[in-house]
Amino acid sequence: MSLHINRAVAEARTNIALVKYWGKRNEALNLPAVGSISLTLDGLATRTEVRFDPSLAADTLNLNGTPAAGKPLTRVMRLLDLVRAASGRTGHAAVTSSNNFPTAAGLASSASAFAALALAATRAAGLSLDGAALSNLARRGSGSAARSIFGGFVEMKAGTQEDGGDSIAAPLATWDVRMVVGITGEGMKATLSTDGMRHTAETSPYYRAWVESHPADLAAGRAAIVHRDLQALGEVAERSCLSMHGSALAARPGILYWSGATVDAFHMIRALRSDGVGVWFTNDAGPHVKALCAPADAPRVEKALASVHGVVRTICCPPGAGAVVIEEGA
Ligand code: 2P0
Question: What angle do CA 45, 51, 52 make, to 5 degrees?
Fold first, then answer.
């Protein structure tokens, strides 16, 4: 530990789950009820600077050029408190964070944000954590952030320990695929993931079935990645996405993240598949659609998705690297 370092800049990329995380076994420690498997994406990144400054009266947060308060600042302060406790550092910090993709597109992700923050804050505090410890810390900010510490295909373990020591992510084998993102309109999602998960767990009669069917999907996803079997991976990805949404749709009242364009894009992807293109959809707590395919098929998939009424933009992402330190020093 070197106490003179008080500033660090880190970058992390977002990730998309192929076997979904939905539900928590402990909300205070943010421990997931189920594991998950994701792909870290190149091209959609958050860059975050953390500067510990003894002259500050409080922690501050600047998000995409604008000072932030309220919930985003509170979540950042909670993570900084964990870093202060682990490092012994007592001062406040100035956090400056920006995404390299338009926030208005609605893709702004807590995954890349909290992975970048965990890495930048620990390095600025003079700590040098390994990937597992960083993943554990990032999870406290956001469950999906635990996965963005690593590049390529990543598995997040639900874990069984009460303190969450084994609720961490680790990299799996990686090969070259594409995730084509179809942006379906703009705006904030209706129900935040954390609230949606809680409501589903508390009220959906299908939640238990979701949790119980999940280990088989994880095993199938893991095997597909090890064998580089895109079809098997795509099939489990669609199944896991629809199961997650099925449990949320059955909550009372039901949570509906899809727009008409989302469903039209699902049909378009299945029509492409009927034409012999190896492409499978997934979708998260919002209306955007993500299509998994081989690199050679990506141009055709992108064109087809762009032709869906309501899809305003497409982004084609190769696998991306894990979180990295860009700069550090006094
Ligand atoms: C996932 N999602 O596996 C799932 C699928 C969205 C749908 O992880 O409450 O922002 O901060 O741990 O990580 C989004 O939820 O939730 C998410 P918290 P997070 O990617």
Answer: 140
> Which CATH number do you get for residue 78?
3.30.230.10
Q: Read off the amino acid at residue 160.
A: T
Q: Are residues 56 and 156 in the same domain?
A: yes
23 plus 105 within the same structural domain: yes
Q: Give me the pLDDT at residue 1, please.
A: 44
Structure tokens at 102: 């338009």
Is residue 87, in this structure, part of any structural domain at all? Answer: yes
pLDDT at position 104 is 47
Q: What is the pLDDT of residues 267-309, one digit of tens each?
A: 999 999 999 999 999 999 999 999 999 999 999 999 999 999 9
**Euclidean distance between CA atoms 330 and 147, whole angstroms:** 29
Task: Give the DSSP H or E segment for 168.
Answer: none
CA distances from 141 to 16, 25, 72, 159, 170 (A): 17, 15, 10, 17, 17
d(C-alpha 288, C-alpha 311), whole Å: 8
CA–centroid distance, 21 to ligand 1, in Å, is: 6
169 and 249 assigned to the same domain:
no
pLDDT(95) > 90: yes
Residue 147 shares a structural domain with residue 205: no
Which atom of ligand 1 is nearest the CA belonging to 141? Answer: 11
Where in the sequence is the domain holding 303, given as residue range(s)?
178-317
Query: Which residue's CA is the nearest one to ligand 1's atom 14?
Result: 193
Question: Which amino acid does the sequence have at 124?
Answer: A
Mutate to test the pocket of ligand 1, among 110, 112, 139 (most ligand atoms within 8 A of CB): 110
> Is 274 inside any structural domain?
yes
The CA distance from 81 to 262, in Å, is 39
Neighbours of 175 (CB within 10 A): 11
In the block, tokens 């069917």 appear at 213
DSSP string, 71-124: HHHHHHHHHHHHHHHHH---S-EEEEEEESS-GGGT---HHHHHHHHHHHHHHH
User: Which stretches within 163-291 are classed as H helix?
Assistant: 193-203, 207-226, 230-249, 260-274
